[in-house]
């Protein structure tokens, strides 16, 4: 379950704090030390943890908290608010183009869940009354085109593909023309991933961006890889100017380090999260719901 181990540790800390009638400065310090440790063990970025604990301590150490009738409750409330802030505050909706189609480019490393997420997102938008077209531009992994066709088919979404063609940029351009001709108001491009970020991958993605000007560039990262996911997001963002992040496999991520760091490190919102292998397991990312999940 997402955030399970972090949640357990924080809840223990706050249980101890609530057990005390009055919270002394020493109690607060001890609690903050535990929070810091719990976040580090959850693989949250070191600087993010430092800033977070500093901000919470500053707010919680004030007289109006410490001298209130329910200091422990106040501290928990502050932690909750700061967790929400850390994950981006308000939920950030998908950008929709004023003139259709809305063009969404999915990027990410191989195995992150790009192809699955492209289809899931198409399914989600279809449910909202849109008419998405998926476009298979992951031309280097032979099975990827087929995979997109299969998952697209399961959701009854049309897929634009060109068998045997390896010019991803051309496929994206022609796919877009196809979308316009067929009144598809959302065009979702599944791009190639690599095991590592390399220049060729970035060049191809940049070329697609130049040619089709996406409304959204969504970077798909695997939450279970923790700080690696954050580093990948940081690198992609500096090369490509992503517009948002999709965190996949959050269902299997008991720690939560990526979810809690990626926004602060990249300054880009987490827009969706993958919560399972089923094609309906994609949700809008709500920072407040995630914070509630953590604090129980
Ligand atoms: P790609 O190489 O980035 O296109 O990755 P795929 O879309 O092929 O996904 C790789 C694996 O991750 C597949 O087995 C997916 O079913 C799985 N996957 C993707 N998203 C999620 C998710 O949110 N939760 C879980 N549990 N598995 C996921």
Automatic annotation (TrEMBL):
Residue span(s) of domain Signal recognition particle SRP54 helical bundle: 2-87
Catalytic activity: GTP + H2O = GDP + phosphate + H(+)
Primary residence: cytoplasm
Cell compartment(s), UniProt: Cytoplasm
GO cellular component: signal recognition particle
Residues binding GTP, per UniProt: 108-115, 190-194, 248-251
All residue ranges annotated as the SRP54-type proteins GTP-binding domain in the record: 101-296
GO molecular function: 7S RNA binding; GTP binding; GTPase activity
Gene Ontology BP term (one): SRP-dependent cotranslational protein targeting to membrane
Signal sequence, start to end: none
This protein's record includes keyword Transit peptide: no
EC number(s) stated in the UniProt entry for this protein: 3.6.5.4
Keywords assigned by UniProt, alphabetized: Cytoplasm, GTP-binding, Hydrolase, Nucleotide-binding, Ribonucleoprotein, RNA-binding, Signal recognition particle
Positions of the AAA+ ATPase domain: 100-247
Name of the top EC class for this enzyme: hydrolase
Domain-related comment: Composed of three domains: the N-terminal N domain, which is responsible for interactions with the ribosome, the central G domain, which binds GTP, and the C-terminal M domain, which binds the RNA and the signal sequence of the RNC.
Protein family (similarity comment): Belongs to the GTP-binding SRP family. SRP54 subfamily.
Stated role: Involved in targeting and insertion of nascent membrane proteins into the cytoplasmic membrane. Binds to the hydrophobic signal sequence of the ribosome-nascent chain (RNC) as it emerges from the ribosomes. The SRP-RNC complex is then targeted to the cytoplasmic membrane where it interacts with the SRP receptor FtsY.
Subunit note: Part of the signal recognition particle protein translocation system, which is composed of SRP and FtsY.
The name this protein goes by in its record: Signal recognition particle protein
Taxonomic source organism: Monoglobus pectinilyticus
Gene that specifies this protein: ffh
Entire-sequence positions represented here: 1 to 296 of 459
